[in-house]
Write a structure and sequence with these properties.
heterodimer, A: alpha/beta, D-Maltodextrin-Binding Protein, domain 2, 2 domains, 43% helix, B: mainly alpha, MetI-like fold, 76% helix
Chain lengths: 331, 512
């Protein structure tokens, strides 16, 4: 028994080295977040479609979530094996650019985001509107703004902006919608907040277990329940002040040893083959509306107004907004 | 004073890894000066950890005492099952507790019928409740072993002298508690120091920030390793103070040797029988009802588990078995050396507790920074996970072994010397049989801790290297809460099976 366990351990190490040694076809390494590479995520389909005609080996390396990705890039620096980083969002791109590790993408394909989005270093691959998601059978008096939500006795669960990108997105949302009044909005929301979780999964888990009436998620969350579970009870509250957007982007590392392949992959991101996999694997809006249109449920909760700070605005607003949030909720 | 080259080597390795990795992370050397927010986090961290440690220990005394002196149907199963909460992945444990104490739990529904508002588990009390749920079983088991280590002859003598239960407690049980409780309290305190997901989720908001969250933020969100290292030093200081305090009040039991028979602790009749039954029943309900909720929730999700789960399970089990082997070897070497007062025993004792004080995140990041220039991180994901898990469970295994190793030394050292038993022979004939119980339990805890770990693997995992906890996390991240509950049940079942296997082996070997 003991020897077989040991052998298993050695085999694991050996396989790692063997893979590195057997790399004769060019390898494009894409650093991305966890859920992208999961067997039910976009990763497997994207890999298959890209490898079909690149004569290369597309390899994903997963590292936690968007923030962990940036930390990983910074840890690895120019020595990184990765060629492309996929999964940062616009609240992180200013910091990512500041590392000087990214190269301009040089892509010319046009995205179909609801707001103009141009970035010399990062191409968008999907996006979504943050929204408060609720159960239609339990919540009937749906608030139409943060002010109305604060005035209601609805219980919400949100994510901590210090440990999760949706949590940070909510901070920027309130800031973009209310500016200097953001502090008052948070003071009003304090008694609605049941709890704050470290990440999106914990918050959504508490919501589905009935711990809160609403959870900070995306307008496309109900589409997941509708399409994957044939469950039509979930809905997103549409707020009059507009909804903040999360735009997920990919960028090419300057130190890549496969610049041509990396460019080819960034171009592939804009293609229908990539974009058509996004909606029902990542449950976000594709950056370019696919030829076949959007799946059922994606058109249900469209806010009239989209809010999005530029990368620099978001970076500048962050610390102040975080301090306001902490002060309002820490009592 | 004797030399212990093996223990010195192990201790050097452990100290080198823990302190070295913290050093690598903090190479930029940041200011140690904490901000106002840090001080608030520090206050909350210490408060919740101290409360959790005191309450876990206080509640564990009557429960362990009742389990030690009563025999009833299902006692063995209950003792094994009580190990389970400790093995639960944090978010699964939290969801289990919420099924009982949450806003839409059975209890809250009952309150609603009576026109009362639902329970609110969120706040300091929720954090402490969860920490007691997770740690009470561990302390109970540590104390139970303490009771079983008191030679049966002592209780016989006390009874033949006509000592009432109170006097027995004062002369036999209290010295044992004085020897075991401080160590147990230090372990719980340091576990709770490093809490982050429990404290935030049940704490209710930014008021419930712990130092560990600040470390997480510094590393993952701001990428400021110097600040992370500075915070890790603060956390480490807290752990060190706790260990020092534990040392200061640590008593030595010194019962003298018995015949190694572990039969009856005195079992007084009358009202004490009822009190014991109550303690056991309350503890069982508190620990097993949330566990039942986890099982109930998970069974529904077993139907749609993705195929990739089983590969993750195999990977997790392999990692757990390997790291358990490493942990137990190191813990045994250190505990035996400290117990016989080898040269540097005080240092070994500190080093064995050291990993508790170092954040797993800091450790993982340090290792990442160390190996990354030389080898692709995902190629060494599993070996690194084995090493870090082994390191992180060392303090538990060591704390469990030490009291019995001390008793063993006090009782059998002269006998072993008179027989000229040394080295492997002494280990085989004297040490291993008498340490079988804590060895088995320690191995069970180490294996289960390693199975459930979700710290280091997230830094190193490639596209196909996921362990089971990471897999559960990914399922939750893709809205698949039912499948995640099912996968969590598989995880708990596998952890528990490993735990029960080792623990059972230890207990069987001990009763022989």
């Amino acid at each position: 028994m003991k020897t077989s366990i040991l052998a298993l351990g050695f085999a694991t190490v050996a396989t790692g080295f063997a893979c590195a040694a057997a790399a004769e076809t060019p390898v494009l390494t894409v650093l991305t977040y966890d859920s992208f590479v999961a067997e039910w995520g976009p990763g497997p389909a994207v890999e298959k479609a890209f490898e079909a005609d690149c004569a290369c080996d597309l390899r994903f390396v997963a590292a936690g979530d968007g923030a962990a990705l940036l930390a990983r890039v910074q840890m690895e620096g120019a020595a990184s094996d990765a060629d492309v980083v996929l999964g940062l969002d616009t609240s992180l791109t200013a910091a990512a650019r500041a590392t000087g590790l990214f190269a301009p993408h040089g892509q010319t394909w046009a995205n179909t985001l609801p707001v103009p989005f141009e970035d010399a270093d990062f191409v968008p691959y999907d996006w979504g509107w943050f929204a408060m998601v609720y159960d239609k059978t339990k919540v009937t008096d749906v608030p139409t703004s943060f002010e109305a939500l604060a005035a209601s006795d609805l219980k919400i669960v949100i994510q901590d902006p210090r440990s999760s990108t949706p949590g940070l997105g909510l901070l920027l949302w309130v800031k973009a919608a209310y500016g200097d009044r953001a502090k008052d909005i948070w003071a009003g929301l304090a008694d609605n907040i049941v709890t704050v979780t470290p990440g999106w999964s914990e918050a959504y888990g508490l919501f589905t277990e009935g711990e809160a009436d609403m959870v900070l998620s995306y307008t496309t969350s109900p589409a997941y329940h509708l399409i994957a579970e044939s469950d039509d009870t979930k809905a997103a509250a549409v707020f009059d002040e507009g909804h903040y957007m999360q735009v997920e982007v990919a960028g090419k590392l300057a130190a890549t040893d496969q610049p041509a392949l990396a460019d080819r992959f960034l171009a592939f991101i804009g293609s229908d083959a990539f974009q058509s996999t996004i909606a029902t694997t990542n449950w976000m809006y594709p950056a370019v509306t696919p030829a076949g249109g959007l799946p059922e449920g994606f058109d249900r909760f469209r806010p009239a107004k989209s809010l999005l700070m530029s990368a620099d605005e978001a970076a500048a607003a962050r610390d102040g907004a975080l301090a306001e949030w902490q002060a309002a909720l820490a009592q | 004073m004797s030399h212990a080259p093996g223990a010195a080597a192990v201790a050097a390795l452990v100290a080198g890894l823990t302190l070295g990795m913290a050093g690598v992370v903090g190479a930029g050397a940041g200011s140690l000066w904490p901000t106002a927010a840090d001080l608030a986090a520090l206050r909350f961290t210490v408060l919740q950890a101290a409360l959790s440690a005191v309450i876990s220990c206080a509640l564990a005394v009557p429960v362990a005492r009742a389990l030690a002196r009563r025999r009833f149907l299902g006692r063995g199963v209950l003792i094994t099952l009580m190990g389970a909460p400790f093995l639960l992945p944090v978010i699964v444990a939290v969801l289990g507790l919420l099924a009982v104490f949450g806003r839409s739990s059975i209890v809250s529904d009952g309150l609603a019928l009576a026109g009362l508002p639902p329970l609110s588990i969120y706040g300091l009390h929720g954090v402490v409740l969860a920490h007691v749920f997770l740690n009470l079983p561990l302390v109970t088991r540590m104390l139970l072993m303490g009771w079983q280590a008191i030679p049966a002859e002592r209780f016989r003598l006390a009874q033949s002298l006509g000592m009432p239960p109170a006097a027995q407690f004062r002369h036999l049980e209290w010295p044992m508690l004085r020897a075991v409780l401080p160590g147990a309290a230090v372990v719980v305190f340091t576990i709770c120091l490093a809490s982050f997901a429990v404290a935030l989720t049940l704490g209710g908001g930014p008021g419930a920030t712990t130092v560990e969250l600040a470390i997480y933020q510094a590393l993952r969100f701001d990428y400021d390793p110097a600040r992370a290292a500075a915070l890790a030093v603060i956390q480490f200081g807290l752990g060190a103070v706790a260990v020092a305090l534990g040392w200061a009040v640590l008593g030595r039991a010194g019962f003298g040797s018995g015949l190694g028979r572990r039969i009856g602790v005195g079992a007084p009749k009358g009202w004490r029988r009822g009190a014991d039954a109550l303690a056991v029943m309350l503890a069982a309900a508190f620990l097993l009802v949330p566990l039942g909720a986890v099982v109930w929730r998970g069974v529904g999700g077993l139907g749609d588990l993705p195929a990739g789960l089983w590969a993750a399970l195999v990977r997790s089990v392999a990692v757990a078995l390997l790291s358990t082997g490493v942990t137990m070897g190191a813990a045994l070497v250190l505990a035996l050396a400290v117990a016989r007062g080898a040269r540097g025993a005080g240092l070994f004792d500190t080093v064995a507790t050291l990993p508790l004080a170092v954040s797993g995140l800091v450790l993982g990041t340090g290792l990442f920074l160390t190996v990354q220039p030389f080898v692709r991180p995902e190629a060494v994901a599993l070996p690194v996970t084995v090493m870090v898990n082994a390191l992180l469970s060392l303090p538990y295994a060591y704390r469990l072994l030490l009291p019995e190793a001390r008793a063993l030394h006090a009782d059998y050292d002269r006998l072993a010397r008179s027989l000229a038993l040394t080295g492997v022979a002494r280990l085989r004939w004297v040490a291993l049989p008498r340490l079988a119980r804590p060895l088995g339990f320690g191995a069970g805890v180490a294996a289960a801790l390693s199975m459930g770990d979700l710290g280091v693997i997230t830094l190193f995992a490639g596209e196909s290297g996921a362990t089971l906890p990471l897999y559960v996390h990914r399922l939750m991240g893709a809205y698949r809460m039912d499948a995640a509950a099912g996968a969590a049940l598989v995880l708990v079942a596998a952890s528990f099976a490993l735990f029960a296997l080792f623990d059972g082996m230890g207990r069987r070997a001990a009763t022989r």
